[in-house]
């Protein structure tokens, strides 16, 4: 208990000193706002979440006297939402893919009355789908100062989605080679993206039962342990020993492994993203 308390107090003191120094120097704790889990938690909120998990684990370890319980609490709070949740991230991915397909149709339809590809792109960015409206507005602004290839490369980076990569590649090829059947290509690309969206929705529905069962199992286990600790503590007395903590560590490893497998099987394999080779890169390659 004394060692655990000293370690916890030392960790919290070190964290406080580090945050105070960063505050005095005017330095952000996390310079680049990235997601702990892509599309889920912004970096600043993730830092607060991890700090709360550490404090919660310390409190559980001090109250129960079980270091392994404190470790399990910290790991569970940090990784639990990513393993058992992630529904918002999946919905966002599906929404972006559907929006890309809609924008593809808009470009195809607008090109019939526009004087060129760039004009069609500018016109459609003004009324683009809400899910990708911000990247489209930034893309329209870049078109005024950059080449089409450079602006499309930045758009692909902002959207960060395999379906967007396909559309960007098609538009870049059309801009360079003046493709004659761009409308037909965009139509087929839109159908392919929507087919991918339908597949993702079916997979997500099929796996929802497994995720729900896992959530029920975890919740029941946690509630049972709390009930036993509060009203039948003598049944948990064996875990006060070193051997008991080792067995509890084995249980923790099984739970963590099960969560990792659940996370692995809940993900949908997507093709690797590819970046667009811009005109600047082409010029550098010729120079070499």
Task: Give your account of this protein's structure.
This protein is mainly α and 288 residues long. The chain has a domain at 89-199. 77% of the residues lie in helices and 0% in strands. Helix 1 (2-25) packs antiparallel against helix 2, helix 3 (67-84) runs parallel beside helix 10 and helix 7 packs antiparallel against helix 8 (162-177). The radius of gyration is 26 Å and the shape is elongated.
Beta content comes to: under 5%
- Average pLDDT, all residues: 77
- Main β-sheet description: none
Q: What oligomeric state do these chains adopt?
A: single chain
| Number of helices in the DSSP assignment | 11
Structural class comes to mainly alpha
Straight-line N-to-C gap: 64 Å
Low-confidence segments, given as residue ranges, are: 31-40, 278-288
User: Helix and strand string, N-terminal first?
Assistant: HHHHHHHHHHH
* Cα radius of gyration in angstroms: 26 Å
Helical residue percent band: over 70%
Principal-axis shape = elongated
Number of strands: 0
Summarize the structure.
The chain has 288 residues and is mostly helical. 77% of the residues lie in helices and 0% in strands. 19% of the residues are buried.
Search tags:
288 residues, mainly alpha, 0% strand
Q: What topology emerges from the helices and strands here?
A:
Layout: H1 2-25, H2 43-64, H3 67-84, H4 87-110, H5 117-126, H6 133-143, H7 148-159, H8 162-177, H9 182-231, H10 242-266, H11 279-287
């Amino acid at each position: 208990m004394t060692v655990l308390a000293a370690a916890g107090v030392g960790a919290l003191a070190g964290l406080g000193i580090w945050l105070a120094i960063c505050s005095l120097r005017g330095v952000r704790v996390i310079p680049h706002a990235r997601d702990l889990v892509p599309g889920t938690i912004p970096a600043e909120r993730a830092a607060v979440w991890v700090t709360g998990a550490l404090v919660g684990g310390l409190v559980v370890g001090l109250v129960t006297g079980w270091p392994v319980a404190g470790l399990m609490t910290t790991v569970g709070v940090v990784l639990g939402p990513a393993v058992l949740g992630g529904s918002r991230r999946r919905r966002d991915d599906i929404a972006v893919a559907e929006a890309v397909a809609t924008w593809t149709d808009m470009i195809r339809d607008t090109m019939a009355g526009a004087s060129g590809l760039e004009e069609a792109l500018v016109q459609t960015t003004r009324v683009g789908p809400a899910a990708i409206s911000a990247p489209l507005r930034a893309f329209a602004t870049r078109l005024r100062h950059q080449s089409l290839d450079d602006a499309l490369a930045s758009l692909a980076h902002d959207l960060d989605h395999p379906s967007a990569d396909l559309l960007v590649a098609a538009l870049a090829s059309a801009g360079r080679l003046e493709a004659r059947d761009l409308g037909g290509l965009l139509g087929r690309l839109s159908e392919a993206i929507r087919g991918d969206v339908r597949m993702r929705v079916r997979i997500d529905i099929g796996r929802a039962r497994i995720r729900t069962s896992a959530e029920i199992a975890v919740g029941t286990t946690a509630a049972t342990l709390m009930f036993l600790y509060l009203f039948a503590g003598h049944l948990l007395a064996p875990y006060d020993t070193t051997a008991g903590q080792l067995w509890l560590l084995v249980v923790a490893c099984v739970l963590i492994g099960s969560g990792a497998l659940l996370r692995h099987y809940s993900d949908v394999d997507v093709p690797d993203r590819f970046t667009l080779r811009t005109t600047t890169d082409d010029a550098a390659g010729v120079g070499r």
